[in-house]
Design brief:
The structure holds two protein chains of two kinds. Chain A is an all-alpha fold. Chain A contains six helices and one strand. Chain A has helices at residues 2-20, 25-32, 41-59, 82-98, 102-110, 114-144; one strand spanning 37-38. The N and C termini of chain A lie far apart (43 Å). The relative contact order of chain A is 0.10. By secondary structure, chain B is mainly alpha-helical. Chain B has helices at 10-31, 37-42, 53-70, 84-100, 105-114, 118-141; one strand at 2-3. The chains are: A mainly alpha, B mainly alpha. Chains A and B meet through helix 1, helix 2, strand 1, helix 3 and helix 4 of A and strand 1, helix 1, helix 2, helix 3 and helix 4 of B. Strand 1 (37-38) of chain A pairs parallel with strand 1 of chain B, so a sheet runs across the interface.
Chain lengths: 145, 144
């Protein structure tokens, strides 16, 4: 059941990206180019997604379990730290260079776009690098302790 | 600033956004998790028992979305401006940045903003600002 729900959610999410125009990198860059001829469409994507999402989160606020009994897992961290801000800035630079973020990267790969596949492979390499850096950091922290 | 009215697609973008929101809602109300793509993919690189199949099925659903869409209508045209080296660099930065920043456009930008999470609001401001600045530098300063 859980696997089916996540498959359906992934499918609907991906279809939403296509309908919204977010799976077209040129359109994303048109939104990020406020100094050129600006395409405000993606602001409406955010508005639609956040609006529907907020209703769901509000509905579930008093519950501790989902409609089918799974525990609700929300991120516990509250602090805005350097890691969060610098990581997000680095992500934004990559997003601005290609017009692709992780969701559309999957959709483009699903269309067998060669450029999309190169982006996805590089993104996964970035994920692997992160894991390696984290392991190194954890080892260092352990030897210091 | 001038608005590109020919490119502006208010109804499709609002409808697509609502679909993304509905996917997020479905995922949270049934599986109890945040639909953050970078986190869902990233978690596959630290495999833990019982934590793999839902990630794989979500990713599989996203990969199949264009195929499912094409069964109903012709897929819209896509254009990717950058060359391969630019895309490789961009992908690497996105892969690193989203993991250090604990999220991307979906986890922070949609789910986190919808929950009014202070961390997600800060992250969203940061990646939007960096995105605007990068496109400005590439298109209008020609320094990159």
């Amino acid at each position: 059941m859980y696997s089916f729900a996540s498959f359906a959610a992934g499918l609907l999410f991906g279809a939403g990206l296509i309908v919204a125009g977010m799976a077209n990198p040129a359109k994303v860059l048109g939104f990020l180019d406020v100094a050129g001829s600006w395409d405000p469409s993606l602001a409406l994507v955010m508005a639609g997604a956040v609006g529907v999402g907020a209703a769901a989160f509000a509905l579930m606020r008093r519950r501790r379990h989902t409609l089918i009994g799974a525990p609700l897992r929300l991120p516990g961290a509250r602090k805005v730290d350097r890691r969060l801000v610098i990581g997000s800035l680095v992500f934004g630079v990559g997003w601005g260079l290609a017009g692709i973020c992780p969701g559309p990267a999957l959709v483009l790969a699903g269309q067998a776009s060669a450029k999309g596949l190169v982006f996805l492979a590089a993104m996964l390499a970035g994920n692997v690098l992160f894991e390696l850096f984290e392991k190194k950091r954890e080892r260092k922290a352990r030897t210091r302790a | 600033m001038s608005i590109d009215w020919n490119a502006f697609t208010p109804s499709q973008s609002l409808a697509g956004g609502a679909m993304i929101g509905a996917a997020t809602a479905l995922f949270f109300m049934l599986n109890g998790r945040i639909a953050g793509i970078s986190g869902i993919i990233g978690g596959l690189l630290r495999p833990q028992a019982g934590d793999i199949s839902w990630r794989l099925t979500f990713v599989f659903g996203m990969l199949l979305a264009p195929l499912a869409y094409a069964a109903f209508a012709a897929l819209p045209e896509i254009r990717i401006a950058g060359g391969y080296p630019t895309l490789a660099l961009a992908g690497l930065l996105v892969g690193l940045g989203t993991r250090y920043g604990s999220g991307c456009t979906s986890g922070h930008g949609v789910c986190g903003v919808a929950r009014l999470s202070p961390r997600s609001l800060a992250a969203t401001l940061a990646f939007m600002a960096a995105g605007f600045a990068t496109v400005f530098a590439v298109r209008h300063l020609a320094i990159v």
